[in-house]
Amino acid sequence: MKIAVLPGDGIGTEIVDEAVKVLKVLDLKLELEFADVGGMAYDKHGHPLPEATLKLAKAADAILFGAVGDWKYDKLERQFRPEQAILGLRKNLGLFANFRPAICYEQLTHASSLKPELVAGLDILIIRELTGDIYFGQPRGRRTSPDGTFAGAEEAFDTMRYTRPEIERIAHVAFQAARKRGKKVTSVDKANVLETFQFWKDVVTEVGQQYPDVKLDHMYVDNAAMQLVKSPKSFDVVVTGNMFGDILSDEAAMLTGSIGMLPSGSMNASNQGLYEPSHGSAPDIAGKGVANPLATILSAAMMLRFSLNQPQAADRIESAVKDVLSQGLRTADIWSEGTRKVGTREMGEAVVAAITKKTTKS
Ligand code: IPM
Ligand code: MG
Fold first, then answer.
1. Which residues make up the binding site for substrate (predicted)?
2. Given 190, 236, 275, 333, the catalytic residue
3. Number of structural domains the chain divides into
4. 254 and 278 share a domain?
5. Does residue 190 have an active-site annotation?
6. I need a surface site. Which of 156, 172, 329, 344 has the fewest CB within 10 A?
């Protein structure tokens, strides 16, 4: 099993290091190959997604990704910005189905900014379409406004669009995922205003007829943003477009206490996947050894489960993470009175130790 490891920028290297330690202790036949990505790749090779990195990613069974981005690249032309690396990987590998589970661990119920009773036992899955929508729609650009009140003025524009097959395939992914969990899908749209999302709603409804055992609801995105903080446990699987999914998944992440806990996986039609923490490169804390590596470690577990067909190994990682939380170990983002504050490395090594301890016991 070939894994392309792309640590990237900011805290990316620190957190990926810990996930790699965890993968290595599992005794699986994994071939890990590292490559440059993001701003550091731009510095070294003049491009955030160098040819060699893309080639390695394409040939791998799965990709373990850290994070990309730093303010110092904000002034670069868009095509050279670090974010283009992750967008390029998603597009080039056809990684259209993005899974962002938001699970509130029992031990972290009090780390959420919401009342504990609202989030205790929370387990929702956001499925975000990842290769379409306004993120990739053409045309886009800057021009002189051709019409309207401000005709002749400078303007910028993007295009929101979805084709039927794009909506159908993500809808199938959502219904199938729901079948394995709470059997409920909430499709989030803005059908009251946008043509694209009226179409989205119509197509999801059609696909839903093939899944009579799964309950389908539709919700406008503004209401969904509200319901997520009002009664988050009323959701099971949420399926939505690229843009809305970007926003709602950050919101859902915070329900769980810290975005530092949330893994994610992006799959294509052949189950090849890219796995990354839901959070970004956090340049403000990079290099300080304080970042939470658990989202990346849990992403490695997702990788084993979804792309490498190693569900038992994934279980071992997930139960080790629960162990270290039960031991009271906390990185700064999830620390609270009465728990022990640890750094990135100590947290990673504690997960490794929890896995080894269980292995020797059994
Ligand atoms: C995410 C990130 C990316 C996105 C950025 C880094 C391009 O916010 O994965 O949610 O907008 O998709
Ligand atoms: Mg985002």
1. 90, 100, 128, 222
2. 190
3. 2
4. no
5. yes
6. 156
